[in-house]
Structure formats: C-alpha cells, structure tokens
Request: fold
Amino acid sequence: MRRSQLPTAGIPDSSCRDERRGGGVAIWARRRRRRADGVVTVEAALIVPILLLLTFGMIEYGWLFLKSQEITNAARRGVRVAIRADATTGEVTTAIGDALSVAGLGGSGYQVTITPSDVAGAATGDVIAVQITLPYDGVALMGTSLVPTPANIQASVSMAKEGP
Reply:
C-alpha cells in the first residue's frame, strides 16, 4: 500500500500539522500584539496630559522664581544706594527702575515702598528698607491658570544707614 492510500482517520500528516500550528501561533501572536498596542495607546492617552501639565508647571514655576530673584536684586540695588551717607530718595527709585528695566520688568506695574520715605533724613545706623511688589499677571510666562501662581511677587531688603 502506498502512503497516500493509508487511512488517516482524520489525522493530518506532519506537514499539515506544522502549518496549522505555525499559523495558529502567528494569528494568536498578532492578536496579542494588537491588544498590547491598544493598551499602550490607552496608557499614553492617560499619562501624556499629566506629563505635559507637570512640564509646563515646572517651566512656569521656574519663570516665577527667576522673576522673584530679579525683583530681589532690584530691591538690593535700591537699598545699597539708599544706605550711602549722601543718598536721596530719587536716586534710590532711579536705581530700582534701572535694575527692573534691565530685567525686562520696567513697565510691569511694580510698586516701591521705601522706609523711611526720605532716606536723606535718616541718621547713621537707622535701618532703611526697600520693598518691591509686582503683580504676577503682568509677567506670567504662559498667562494661563494651569498651575496655581501668586497674585503678587514681593521682595524686601533692609540695611543700616552708613555714616560719614
């Protein structure tokens, strides 16, 4: 009897068995890959907005800290001018305005408070304080409320008046 004439009783020969097994595994692997791709897409859709919010929040807070440092430097510059023995209040406000203009904050609506208001009349050893308040809305980087930010940035520096 030839091999082709043998009864198979519903059992395929080895070549068919291998093809069917390989085909079944390939189909199963493709289905699993598609499901994994779908899971990855859903995870990305959930995570990407959170990552973007964190990134933009860090950028905005970095900008906030930069502007806070620039205001502090302007207040420090102003009080250093104010503690000289021959200083005037006009010189102090000019020094603060120049420092804020260099920082790009000249037209930001800042307010300056100098204590005492007349630095020329302060006695040697008196404490002179310069306080600058700046509305943050005028200098915000993004101008949106993605992250909470303060309404005003404030810096205050004080030093003792020098004598002649």
User: Anything to note?
Assistant: Residues 14-82 form the longest helix (69 residues). The helical segments are 14-82, 89-102.
